[in-house]
Amino acid sequence: MTGERGEQLEANLAACRRRIVEAAARAGRDAEQITLIVVTKYFPASDLRLLAELGVRDVGENKHQEAQAKAAELAELGLRWHFIGQLQSNKAAAVASYADVVHAVDRAKVVDRLARGANQGAQSSPERRLEALVQVSLDPPGTQGRAGVDLGDLPALAEAITSAHGLRLRGVMGVAPLDGDPAAAFAQLGVAAEQLRAVYPDATWISAGMSADLEQAVAAGATHVRVGAAVLGPRPAKR
Ligand SMILES: *Cc1c(COP(=O)(O)O)cnc(C)c1O
Q1: Pocket around ligand 1 at a 6 A CB cut-off
Q2: Closest to 37 measured CA to CA, from 230, 210, 176, 225
Q3: CA atoms of 176 and 185, how far apart (whole Å)
Q4: Do 151 and 195 meet the contact criterion of CB atoms below 8 Å apart?
Q5: What pTM, to 2 d.p., does this model score?
Q6: Is the separation of the CB atoms in 96 and 118 below 8 Å?
Q7: 155-207 pLDDT, tens per residue?
Q8: Rounded to the nearest whole angstrom, what is the distance from the C-alpha of residue 226 to the centroid of ligand 1?
């Protein structure tokens, strides 16, 4: 890779992959079973082109407008687009038209809208399935701005996803609380994943772990880690 930014991304990516390999080894897991999703939110399309050249296939975005524009501009790269942000009901159908995976499904209303979008989208075909993960809340009850469902609400939401045409239930997603113990949070997510798998055996994905806590996530069984800053550097100020 030539160019300063390309070299920086290459080195960061190598270091991040090494962290995953080492964490997997410590957990007695095969690192090949762990997908690195590079979270590119706030970074320009040029960075995604460099990442694609470096072999990255899975990218994560959390803002609809930004994700939509990048997915359109970079369509020829064949990237897998993971929408990791909170889903607003009025945007969910649009997200479903370009996303390959949505990570933060948290209510039935969004399931309906996603299904509608998945069936109408530009890439829509009878075989197209938008892969969906249920976000499980890992925050203590009563936390402000708490995202995700409680364990008790997981079965109904999972059932809504599996009965929606155009969606495929793949597993669970979680974000460790800012000031808590990530290992404990991810253990809680593991319980949810197990509960889901008992009913839906192919809902095997666990999306967990970011730049600061990917080791704990891998130790707790994460199959997909979502890493931004450790690969791209500090995020530019919010626009
Ligand atoms: C931004 C974001 C990430 C990546 O966070 P980093 O700390 O930059 O690795 C992961 N998951 C979600 C849901 C995010 O919004």
Answers
A1: 39, 41, 62, 84, 175, 210-212, 226-230
A2: 225
A3: 6
A4: yes
A5: 0.96
A6: yes
A7: 999 999 999 999 999 999 999 998 889 999 999 999 999 999 999 999 999 99
A8: 6
